[in-house]
Design a protein that fits this description.
Chains A, B, C, D: It comes from Adhaeribacter terrigena. Chains A, B, C, D: Pfam families: TetR_C_10, TetR_N. Chains A, B, C, D: InterPro entries: BscR_C (IPR032551), DNA-bd_HTH_TetR-type_CS (IPR023772), Homeodomain-like_sf (IPR009057), HTH-type_TetR-like_transc_reg (IPR050109), HTH_TetR (IPR001647), Tet_transcr_reg_TetR-rel_C_sf (IPR036271). Chains A, B, C, D: Keywords: DNA-binding. The structure is a homotetramer of 188-residue chains. Chain A has 188 residues and is mostly helical. Chain A has 2 domains: 44 residues, Arc Repressor Mutant, subunit A; 141 residues, Tetracycline Repressor, domain 2 (Orthogonal Bundle). Chain A contains 10 helices and no strands. Chains A and B meet through α9 and α10 of A and α9 and α10 of B. The structure holds a DNA duplex (21 and 21 nucleotides).
Chain lengths: 188, 188, 188, 188
DNA sequence: CATGAATGAGCATTCATTCAT
DNA sequence: CATGAATGAATGCTCATTCAT
């Protein structure tokens, strides 16, 4: 929408990641975004609403990205690999958003309402997992636990790549960790 | 050491988990710990030093707990399972500490000095992994990545158990997720 | 004049009485009056000028009302009773204006210039009192003090009626308090 | 109690009268009282609590002053005159308190709880009036209305004296206005 | 060692006012 | 005439830290 609003969102994302939510004053955000202090409150009723809007918008962007090029017919492994590779490339291309989720997904600043709303955008992943388990393609564990394990593996991989930026064989690493995960989780 | 110091540490741990670091005032900690506001600063030079001390001490306790009953001769799988089970039971018995690590391990409040110091207490786990890889018992991946994957699986499992407290077959769940992990990571 | 100006005046009167001058933002007045925020400043240079205009216009209306049906020949008592009854009925019919005067007559928001200008519209009441004293119909006190006593009795009466809206014998009450006042103040 | 608290109360009283409640910042009060900005909030939880405390304490002082030297046996006229003279001298000796009551008695800043609490300290005046009416010494009007009329006459008199500080016959003026009031209100 | 009154820099938020459209 | 997005100074309040006792 408004260009000023977009600049506020982008600046807040950067600063919340680098210095933390509470350590970042609204005055700093405004200044760095090049708007007046009052302007922030024109677009966001409060600092809390700002971080919630940030979360919501990032989550929706990610959900949209996940669904791009979703393979319709291939095997469960290929579908899962699609998610894996989408998630990895999104995280590497949007490092601030990735850190933001790691830092604030479980923080008290994100209201449960926001979490619920955002969760619905990812319902399709839960559905996918449940269908695959029922079809006998995956080990029979709770779908929520599955998502948690998948995210854990993902975080570990991305974290490793981020902390070792000199590595050149990124695709090899991500394929390897996916292979480990798949080896563990697949029914066979 | 001093009993007052211990009460301050315990109260801070609880409050930092429940309300967050920045949302918890030193006055609140002091009052809840039953000491005067000045007393906190007698034992900790600043609020920052307090949270760093908290981190250091919890990390050291955990390292000590890890080494208890460490099996000296058995197989790599048994040794790894020892860590797994120690970590799970510690997390379930010390929920505040577990949440504390999740919340603050990557926060800017914990100085890199503190992190380095604490990492050394866990050097033996890195050593163990590297030996096992060299011995051909584990898939040949970076030892740091291995630890990250292990921790990710661990967090996912504990998180799942914590969010589903009605479950009675806790051991079954932890054994299952360990089995998945081992199936993926082991060389065979 | 302009219908928008009139709506702003009316809305401001209501809100200043109900929530106070400083507690009412110009944005709120504009919104409730159905005009844009800038429009208010088209008709009134500042918020201060708005409240001063409000005061001036209300005062002039009241002065005009006082002079309606002014008895030309009757006795001093009848003339005074005319003012009494006009004032009472105006106050009961224009409760917002009445409260407004009570709240802001001595406030620092109304400039002394405004007060002076408005006072001139009531010069005729002072003249009336002074003539009556000279003619020996009233106790020989300062005319300003007389007006103050009259207003005090008036406020007390209206306040009592307003706080006891269930009373049905309003005319009896106002006649009685006027009688008390007259008994005290008349020369006899 | 605390000397700092007393200085804050005194400064706030002065500034609220001279510049109004909302026009006086807590920073200004603190500076003028010679304390730090935080100190004000040490003694008063909020600016609102400050003005309520001010009201309560002034009201209680006044009530105490009223009861000093209360004549036990004399006539109703003498008792009423006692209140009159006490009130006048209190108002002239405590001009800030007097203005404060005029400005804030009906303001929304004083909570109804505060008003109720303070009203109880003046219950004895209502009792006195009711007894006197029953005994047939005063005109049979509502006791609340009586108090309102008495206060109105009082305010008018004090206002007149304050606006005409050059007058030397203050006692004559107050005796005269009391006489007018008594002439009107007494049963005879 | 221990206390808690006092400090004052820092922050989120409001709002009268302007001005480009 | 009318609009409303944008401004930024001003304000009530918090809280880590100090220090006299």
């Amino acid at each position: 929408m408004s260009e000023k609003r977009a600049r506020i969102i982008a600046t807040a994302l950067k600063l919340f990641c680098e210095k933390g939510f509470q350590n970042t004053s609204t005055a700093t955000i405004s200044k760095e975004a090049g708007v007046a202090t009052g302007t922030l409150f024109l677009y966001f009723k409060s600092k809390d609403e700002l971080i919630n809007a940030l979360y919501r918008e990032a989550k929706n962007e990610l959900a949209g990205f996940f669904q791009q090029d979703f393979p319709t017919e291939p095997s469960v492994e290929n579908k899962l690999y699609h998610f894996w590779q989408k998630a990895i490339s999104w995280a590497l291309e949007n490092p601030y958003q990735f850190r933001f989720f790691n830092m604030y997904s479980h923080s008290p600043f994100i209201s449960s309402l926001t979490k619920e709303e955002s969760a619905s955008a990812f319902q399709f992943t839960l559905d996918f997992v449940e269908e695959a388990i029922e079809a006998g393609s995956l080990a029979p564990i709770d779908s929520g636990l599955f998502i948690a394990l998948f995210s854990g593996q993902l975080n570990a991989t991305v974290g490793f790549l981020t902390q070792n930026p000199q590595l050149t064989n990124r695709k090899a690493v991500t394929d390897q960790t996916f292979a480990l995960f798949w080896k563990g989780i697949s029914k066979s």
